[in-house]
Amino acid sequence: MISAHDASGQKTKNKSNISKSKLREAEFYFTEGEKYYILEDYAKALVLFQKSLEVAPNNATIYYKIAQILAQGNEMEKALAHIQEALSLDQSNKYFYVLAADIYTQLGDFGRAAETYEEMIGRLENTDQYLFELAAIYIYQQRYDDALSTYNKIEAAYGISEEIITQKQKIYLQNNNLQKALEEGRRLIAAYPEEEAYILKQAEILISNDQNEEAIVYLKSFIKDHHEASQSLLVLSELQRKKGNVEEAVKNIELAFKSPDLSVENKIQLLAEYRIDLSPDDLSRFGLRLGEILVNTHPDIADAHTIYGDLLQAVGKNQQAKDQYIRSLELDGSNFAVWQNSLQILTELNKMDSVLLISDKALELFPNQGTLYYFNGIAHLQKRHYEEAVAALEHGKRLSSANLALVNAFNSMLGDAYNGNKEYEKSYKAFEAALDYDPNNYSVLNNYSYFLALKKDNLEKAEKMSAKTVKDNPDNATFLDTYAWVLYMRGKYKEAKKVIEQAISTGDASAIHYEHYGDILYKLGNIDEAVKQWQVAKGLNPNSELIDKKIADRKLYE
After folding, report:
1. Residue 198 in this model has a pLDDT that exceeds 60
2. Spans of the TPR repeats (predicted)?
3. Does an H or E element contain 521, and which?
């Protein structure tokens, strides 16, 4: 959009038809309007410009100013009418044409926009800079020949440049004229033979069109005379890797990493791209070696350890990744993502003491990050610190209200935490909230069902939820055990026996599964077999006093 003062110096048409007093009045309104326009009070500015126009109806500049305000307010049709009036009164002001073209563009009338630029450039001097806009409109209209002709005019006016060559190449490539695109690239290289960027651009086009061998020739030729060309070394290495020339590829990429022209920031960026683009196998072969070189070369750069940790995590080496993240945090604790990654790995490794320690440190720096409270809450929950877990999870939930998925995760954990804290109604409410968000959250369905069963509360609902969980996860021993226990609590002992036997047959049964199996058998009157299953449970969990009592008394205790 043209600024307020762009056209204020333009001559006013037909001044002779206006008395001096009227002229002063019109200029007063115009000046006041300009003042409010600069202050961005467009409503008052518009009123004043309209008053000025009433006094001086043939003033092109006032029409222009009104058109500006209307266009800013997205009243494009009205703006168009006013700028057309301005142009009918004065065809010598380039800013009138530019605003008109902009309005046509916003209205989607690219043909009229192009005509407006064409008329201005043909009529007025010193308007060559608007050839760029005209060329862009031609491209949008797919008038590629006109666009090329316009870019040639720009080149004639301003000389050869990367911007123009790039635009011409895009057109040629759009029209599948690879040779013309390459010819333009050769022109640019000939004009600036020391510019590595132009070699890289030419190589990029060749690679994109499956002409890797020719790209290699360009790169090797440039590297021969420019040994410090680290970016060319990187591209060459990638091409060699794809050809299977692993030894040459590794040699060249290590040369690039050792080049003083390749900054540590660029090395880190490259490894970040590798992490996304390379397969785990290639990451192990290329990325990890480069990550090791990076941290050995730059041991005091936190981001170097971070990206190496990212690479290690990507190939499943979580323990080593965690070590790199911790080293990164020792150097610079300002990167929240590193804290989060460290906590994620520690949680997966079930290192809950470390999760508590690291999350507490992170919360000192980032007290308003909900995910940190989530990890802190998980650790407290796993360690059965139920009150602390509830406090952390509730606070994190409040901080995360805009992130519904994270709120759902908090609700899922709060159901467990409140149950552990014997606040059962709050537990059920949290589970219900989690299921409102995701009715197929099987972990919540399972835990909710189990807790209801333990309390013998709403067993019909518990059975329905547990049945759904088992139906969708028929080989999950934990879910099967819950279903068996819900059936047990409902007195459906024969059905419960079938389900618990299915759970044990998965091979993932734990002490509680065998204990439940014994309880069910006892209810079915099979005391001897019940005792045998309790003994199996005892072997898996020697510290259960209740099992000892059941076995000794050959009696069920609940």
Report:
1. yes
2. 26-59, 60-93, 408-441, 511-544
3. helix 511-523
